[in-house]
Write a structure and sequence with these properties.
Layout (H helix, E strand, L loop, with lengths): L1 H6 L1 H28 L2 H10 L1 H4 L4 H6 L1 H7 L17 H7 L6 H20 L2 H6 L4 H8 L7 H23 L7 H19 L5 H21 L7 H19 L4 H27 L2 H4 L3 H5 L2 H7 L5 H8 L4 H10 L4 E5 L10 H4 E3 L4 H9 L3 H10 L2 E7 L12 H13 L5 E6 L2 E3 L8 E3 L4 E2 L7 E6 L1
Parallel strand pairs: 1-2, 1-3
Antiparallel strand pairs: 3-8, 4-8, 5-6, 5-7
């Protein structure tokens, strides 16, 4: 053990420095938040970052990350779905050494049961909807489950874990002094265990394992397990597991071979189901437009020279957006105030001209100080801003229990509505302005929205 510590002294020293720095940083952040209590700053961070992590108490937020990442509890969508089968890899890791050291394997398996219980009892089925009967679960998941069985399992897990959740809630909330020091301690201890386990391996393999471990920890700690930040680790994790299984497969006893074959089967099933899901299950999310997701006709026509840029743009965004973008580009000194949208990609000098305010933190401060919407528009213009880009679906990313982003977005829409200092240049939202039975459909932001034509953007000019 002493030889390992001496050999890896500089790396270990760096780890302790990092652990101490992050602990001090987390403590200072907590104290600063408690002292200042600036509502807009707290809300903006809470709305943008914490929607990926969940809104449980801090300790439970990290305990449930493997489950939340696999089951899309915090971030929904096909683009983050890594399948529930990824959870099967966790117990496989502990099964690899179960035969030689069952005294360690059994506690680890029980610990996994504890994690899964905490995760399920803090999942969206309980925290957002509540589980009363099987019909509610079926309605939420759109899966026809066996009558009463799953509901009974979930209710039993909830009742078993309720005392544990209560105990954790008493020591952990939005801010505590336990979670991050505990994570640092787990990280340092895990490194020593891994270093001892891999001391016989060549240097290159040890470097790869150490990199995977360090990257995985930072992924969990700083990115809340968001899938797209962890793609390298997912790939490396599969390679390391397969390498370990290959050694076990070469052993002669039936238990080792059985574990190896079972593990290979799970990994193969995971990869096969992921491939099939990618090409055959998009109708779950996008309905009849599934072919457009897999094969974009407009983009292909542009690459083949059959369509120009304007035609392709109008195919994605109706309502005169192209002409509005060209107008903005003609005045490349005017500043642009942006709330969401992908339009900055089409704007010249977007790195200098475009101000990003996705969570409306800046607007909240301005609107609180200048409550007259005409005056607020003049303040923006006096500071060089002439155009406003807004994503009409901004409120849909609000996952906060308090719905703070939604409230700010409603205030922003009130600022835009009937404001004499603003002129609507383009939008793909369609409303019916008719007061009788004869429809009068127009591209507007305010009015009776036509079903299926909610739209995704609006572009305003500040007069």
């Amino acid at each position: 053990m002493g030889r390992i510590i001496t050999k890896n002294y500089s790396f270990i020293k760096s780890l302790f420095f990092l652990a101490g720095f992050l602990s001090i940083l987390s403590t200072c952040t907590i104290a600063n938040a408690q002292e200042k209590k600036e509502e807009v700053v707290q809300n903006s961070v809470r709305e943008e970052i914490q929607r990926y992590m969940g809104y449980e108490p801090l300790l439970q937020r990290y305990l449930s990350l493997p489950y939340d990442t696999s089951m899309n509890s915090n971030v929904q969508g096909a683009f983050v779905d890594i399948s529930y089968l990824s959870l099967a890899i966790l117990p496989i890791i502990f099964l690899l050494g179960f035969k030689s050291k069952p005294s360690l394997g059994i506690p680890f398996m029980l610990l996994l049961l504890f994690f899964i219980g905490i995760s399920i009892s803090n999942g969206s089925l309980f925290t957002n909807y509540g589980v009363v009967n099987i019909d509610q679960i079926n309605e939420r998941t759109e899966v026809n489950m066996p009558e009463g069985f799953v509901a009974n399992v979930y209710q039993r897990i909830q009742s078993i874990c309720a005392p544990m959740n209560k105990a954790i809630n008493s020591i952990s909330g939005e801010n505590d002094h336990i979670t991050y020091p505990l994570l640092m301690l787990i990280f340092v201890l895990s490194y020593f265990l891994i270093a001892r386990r891999i001391q016989h391996l060549p240097e290159r393999q040890k470097m790869l394992i150490n990199f995977t471990f360090f990257f995985s920890f930072m992924w969990v700690l700083l990115t809340a397990g968001i899938v797209w930040y962890g793609y390298p680790i997912i790939a490396l994790g599969f390679l390391l597991i397969i390498a370990g299984l290959s050694k076990i497969h070469n052993q002669t006893d039936w238990l080792s071979k059985g574990i190896a074959y079972l593990s290979f089967g799970v990994i193969g099933l995971y990869l096969l189901s992921s491939f099939l899901y990618r090409y055959s299950n998009y109708q779950t999310y996008v309905g009849d437009v599934a072919p457009k997701v897999l094969y974009d006709i407009g983009e292909m026509n542009y690459q083949a020279g059959k369509s120009n840029r304007k035609q392709v743009f109008d195919g994605f965004f109706q309502g005169g957006g192209w002409d509005a973008i060209q107008r903005i580009n003609q005045e490349d000194q005017s500043l642009v105030y942006r709330i969401g949208t992908v339009f900055p990609y089409f704007i010249k000098k977007n790195d200098r001209r475009v101000l990003l305010d996705n969570q409306l933190g800046i607007f909240f401060q301005l609107n609180r100080k200048y409550q007259n919407k005409g005056l607020l528009a003049k303040i923006l213009k006096a500071n060089g801003y002439k155009y406003i880009l807004v994503d009409l679906n901004t409120h849909t990313i609000d996952k906060t229990p308090e719905q703070t982003l939604k409230k700010k977005f409603i205030d922003f829409l009130e600022f835009c509505n009937a404001n004499p200092s603003l002129r609507l240049m383009a939008t793909n939202r369609m409303v019916n302005l008719s007061t009788n039975q004869t429809p009068n459909f127009q591209f507007r932001v305010f009015g009776n929205i036509v079903e299926g034509r909610h739209g995704s953007y609006a572009i305003y000019e500040i007069l």
